[in-house]
Every structure is written in structure tokens, then in C-alpha cells.
């Protein structure tokens, strides 16, 4: 399956939730060599992303992604531990270019003026559902940078830079799913913080 070369320039809307969960509750997600979960007071940090990538970027698709905050040497980074998309080019490119473990899923996202809903259905997992509502919209665009540490199919380490800017809003969300692996950790806990980033422009890769 052909896919765009790196970097990918993407645009759209997303809802992000931050979770602090007991480190002992983490599934046995594989991580690149030398990378370990970032644990503070016996709790690890997860981020979930519901993303509607819109026309205007190199691809248009929907994605549900779970990233774990990790220590990479002396630096703090993220590592994608699970992801589902509804586009074959995104799936093939994410795996081949950056080692992101994307799987095929059916993702529905809907939005109204101040919130929205999402649902993921995929083979081997219970459905995952999101409800989100804005609490405070911020009147400016906010830029941010991060990087992921992944492992390519041949076993080599891949560092994936990401840049984004968009219109942020703090909000409240509820994520529900069943008790089946690998997302049962989300069923047992609630997000600590949620926010939306609308009309974002991002660059993934280099």
C-alpha cells in the first residue's frame, strides 16, 4: 500500500485525555530497548487521542491512539503503545516509517458547537466510546512540540518528532470500554484532564 513520505503535514480536530494510573495496572505493552515507563509515586501517565484528520493534509482519516509517557535516557518522551485508524495508507505508513503499531478499526466522530462523541470498534477489543464537552475555550493558538520513541519492524529505534499548533479548550470527558485487553486499564480509571485542539496544523516526522 503506497503512502506519503515523511514528514506528514496533517490538519483537523482532536480530543486528548491524560490518565494517571498505577504502574502495576499497565498492560505488558512492548517498548523499544532502553525505554521505560515514566513512573512518579508509583503511577504512570497515559495519553489518549481521538483525532479527525481533515482534507488539507496529506491524508484524511480518523484515529484513536494511546501513548505512554516514557524515559528515554535522561529525556521524557512518548511511545505509542496502541493505535487504530480507518485508513489503509495511514496504517501502512505509520508502521513502516515510524514503527507506530497501527491496527484497522471503524471510528466514528461527531461534533457539535462545544463538544462531541467518538466510538472505536475493532477486532479483538470491546468498543471504546468517548463523550466530551468544553468547559473553557482559550482565545489563542497554542504551539507544542514532542517526540515519540518507537521500534521499527527491523528492531531499530526510531525517534519521531512532532509539532502542532491549534485552538485549545479545556473540557471534561468520559471514556468507556469493556474489561477486555489491551484497553482494560481505561475501563478501571478515569481521565485526570481532557482538552480539545481544534483547527490544528501538525507535522509528524522529519
UniProtKB/TrEMBL annotation:
GO terms for molecular function: lyase activity. Gene3D superfamilies: Acetoacetate decarboxylase-like (2.40.400.10). InterPro entries: Acetoacetate_decarboxylase (IPR010451), ADC_dom_sf (IPR023375). This is Acetoacetate decarboxylase. It comes from Streptomyces paradoxus.
Amino acid at each position: 500500500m503506497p503512502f506519503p513520505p515523511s514528514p506528514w503535514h496533517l490538519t483537523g480536530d482532536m480530543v486528548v485525555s491524560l490518565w494517571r494510573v498505577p504502574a502495576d495496572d499497565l498492560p505488558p505493552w512492548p517498548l523499544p530497548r532502553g525505554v521505560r515507563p515514566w513512573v512518579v509515586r508509583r503511577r504512570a501517565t497515559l495519553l489518549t487521542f481521538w483525532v479527525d484528520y481533515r482534507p488539507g493534509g496529506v491524508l484524511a482519516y480518523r484515529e484513536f491512539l494511546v501513548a505512554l509517557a516514557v524515559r528515554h535516557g535522561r529525556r521524557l518522551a512518548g511511545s505509542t503503545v496502541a493505535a487504530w485508524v480507518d485508513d489503509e495508507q495511514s496504517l501502512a505508513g505509520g508502521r513502516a516509517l515510524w514503527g507506530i503499531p497501527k491496527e484497522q478499526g471503524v471510528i466514528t466522530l461527531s461534533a457539535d458547537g462545544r463538544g462531541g462523541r467518538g466510538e472505536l470498534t475493532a477486532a479483538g477489543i470491546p468498543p471504546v466510546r468517548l463523550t466530551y464537552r468544553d468547559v473553557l475555550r482559550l482565545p489563542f493558538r497554542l504551539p507544542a512540540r514532542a517526540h515519540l520513541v518507537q521500534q521499527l519492524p527491523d528492531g531499530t529505534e526510531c525517534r519521531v518528532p512532532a509539532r502542532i499548533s491549534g485552538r485549545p479548550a479545556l473540557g471534561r470527558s468520559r471514556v468507556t470500554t469493556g474489561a477486555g485487553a489491551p484497553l482494560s486499564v481505561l475501563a478501571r480509571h478515569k481521565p485526570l484532564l481532557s482538552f480539545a485542539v481544534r483547527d490544528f496544523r501538525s507535522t509528524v516526522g522529519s
